[in-house]
Design brief:
Membrane topology: Multi-pass membrane protein
Subcellular location: Cell membrane
Keywords: Cell membrane, Membrane, Transmembrane, Transmembrane helix
Largest sheet: none
Main location: membrane
Order of helices and strands: HHHH
Radius of gyration: 16 Å
Structural class: mainly alpha
Family: Belongs to the UPF0060 family.
């Protein structure tokens, strides 16, 4: 259950942060209105709370692992919402970022508790 919880929280956090940033982008760059920015601020605040529910108690580890999820999630958002067409290198970079995130967040599960 913990692995599923970690993954679900990272996905929800990605939607909140990327969606919030996108809403602010729309307000500022596309003149969509101040209420887009307000919704973006709310979504970005929600991201902070969602990340705090991760079972790992180490802020730095959670945020570092989330970085990989953010990279892949941002490209996915661009594909679905903005019609972005990623290159092969975008996909490779996302894969590397997600692999790094998995190593950071899941490696402690597979190592001895006495190791650093």
């Amino acid at each position: 259950m913990t692995t599923a919880r970690i993954v679900v929280l990272f996905v929800i956090a990605a939607v909140a942060e990327i969606g919030g940033a996108w809403l602010i982008w729309q307000a500022v760059r596309e003149n969509r209105g101040w209420w887009f920015a307000l919704l973006g601020i709310v979504a970005l605040g929600a991201y902070g709370f969602i990340a705090a529910f991760q079972p790992d108690a180490n802020f730095g580890r959670v945020l570092a692992a989330y970085g990989g999820v953010f990279v892949a999630g941002s490209l996915a958002w661009g594909i679905v919402v903005d019609g972005f067409r990623p290159t092969t290198w975008d996909y490779v970079g996302s894969g590397v970022a997600l692999l790094g995130a998995a190593i950071i967040i899941f490696a402690p599960v597979f190592t001895d508790a006495t190791e650093g």
